[in-house]
Amino acid sequence: MTRKIAIALVILPIAVAWAVEPPHPDSPFIESIFPRGGRRGTQLAIEITGKHLAGASAIRVSGQGVSARVRESSDKLVTAEVSIAPDAAVGRRDLRIISPRGSFVQVFEVGNLPEELEREPNDHWEEAPLVRFPTVINGKVTAKDYDHFRVKVRAAQVITFDLNSSRNGTRFDGFLSLLDLEGNEIAAQDDYYFDKDPRLVHRFAEEGEYVLRVMGFREAGSNSSDYRLTVGDMPSASHVFPAGGRRGSTVEMELTGVNLNKVDGVVLGQGPATAEVVDRSPGRARVKLEIPPEAAKGPHPLWLASEAGELPNPLVFSVSDVREVARPRYTGFRIHPPVVINGVIDRNGAVDSFELVARAGETYSFDGAGMSLGNFLDPAILIYDSDDNLVAYLDDTAPNAFDKEPPSVDFHLTHTFERAGSYRVLLRDAGKRGNPTFVYRLTVQQAQPDFELRVLTNQTTLRKGKPVSLRVRVRRIGGWNTPVDVWIDNLPQGIASRTMTAAPVNTRVRGTFGEDFFVDGSNVELPLEALSDALPGRWPLVVRGRGVLGGRVVEHTASVDYPWQKTGFIRGFTHEQQIVLTLAEPENISNERENVAAVASQ
């Protein structure tokens, strides 16, 4: 449906009340998927736990090569069968469960390594079953629960233990502890990733058997604390440099990590790319990667590959369409925009300094990526004029209210230079920290005013007489400073909405103690109302935005984000890139059908 028709729906003389309620609390919600992944070329049974799952009729998995079939459903449990094709792409997928009350998305992983389920009893270290690696262990940790696994190693062998839970949308804060066979702790790891998952890499001095303990931080856990634990002496990288390149070019990258003498290559995203291992040793590997000219701009997963194929836990590699420079080591490197500068803040207090010559009135944009590349660098930018006056500083683009909105972990600065001259551009960590893993990408170019649209959920449920809203974020970049109209482009028959306007002011969010935070952009709430002739059903929605700046008309289609907190702390774009609207049946009818389904499944 065109925008004109969509607007016409709301200007007809119909009774539409735009007092919008929050999403209905009785729509489906997934708390856990177990196991949360599987090896390609296999079939497996999974259990989905949550709320309001009765009557679930279908499960849809994004991408090609993975299908799922519902076996039984009740209010809190759905059992299903999943089939993974031998040629299914490795990586994370969206798994959407569909019921009369609506739909809900969580994530599911496809891997290459052998997989097994945690076997009880293993609460005590003396009960730990022997694990043959490489393998992926699927388990759960309840409150005050301990899972133990025994490994047999050679002297000087380096083993990686990587626990993936919070990164897959759970609320589990895992902790890894390595014990000898007398129960003494010889190594431990809490938070390795930004998302709080642990990764423990250990070189064993002596041959023998050892025990890995998986537990929750402060013995936390629950029935929804599922995890995927990768164990083995396979190649594992802590970071890659540079962490990106220009499409259509060949980039020579250096991987740093362990067991990299076993690396056979790298795989960029899911697209074709040619990679050649130039040199490799246990701690480092140099790889030449040919980035396809058609590669999409933005971040891609970069998979390490061995004889087993792509390995779990990819790095982040970003593709640009401008000239790139890797680690200019001398102070005062002159910036010639547009350019991406790749560097490392490798020690405490380190500062990288560049020179930019600007004309009076020129506006430049500066984008710094650190945490979004998977490391803990909190990049900050400082700009000084020739008289050593600070003319611009930025750490986070917007102060973060982590409990309410997805955090903005890197910076975007747009600055207009009032005077012509030479300026110093400094990049450092905001806390003046440093680490060899603190890789960054600084993009500098003349500002191109534009905006981005992001829908902050991938599903919503609507009932007659109970309007809801769809939250959309308008993020201004490059100095865009005019309003943006936002609307739903393809409204189904019987569903009404209206265009909303995002003013060029960042949305304020109240913190826990009443303090002010501002999101990186403007949130607008698109209302949705079911009219009297609307029939129950399910439809994909498309959100569009339009703005005018300096006589230039710009229109964009919104991308779709994971709903912050509802799918844990997963940030960024969904794999499926679809918003699904469900118009549910009247509550009395749907409850009757769900009761029948629940009785039938008993």
Strand and helix map with partners:
Layout: H1 3-11, E1 29-34, E2 37-39, E3 43-51, E4 58-61, E5 66-73, E6 77-84, E7 91-99, E8 102-111, E9 115-117, E10 135-140, E11 146-153, E12 158-164, E13 174-179, E14 185-189, E15 199-203, E16 208-216, E17 226-232, E18 236-241, E19 244-246, E20 250-258, E21 265-268, E22 274-280, E23 284-290, E24 298-306, E25 309-310, E26 315-320, E27 323-326, E28 333-334, E29 339-344, E30 351-358, E31 363-369, E32 379-384, E33 390-394, E34 411-416, E35 421-429, E36 439-446, E37 450-455, E38 459-462, E39 468-477, E40 484-488, E41 495-496, E42 500-502, E43 508-510, E44 516-518, E45 522-530, E46 537-541, E47 543-549, E48 552-557, E49 559-560, E50 566-569, E51 579-583, H2 587-601
Parallel strand pairs: 2-8, 9-10, 19-26, 27-29, 28-30, 37-49, 38-51
Antiparallel strand pairs: 1-3, 3-6, 4-7, 5-6, 7-8, 10-17, 11-16, 12-15, 12-17, 13-14, 13-16, 18-20, 20-23, 21-24, 22-23, 24-25, 24-26, 29-36, 30-35, 31-34, 31-36, 32-33, 32-35, 37-39, 39-45, 40-42, 40-47, 41-45, 43-44, 46-51, 47-48
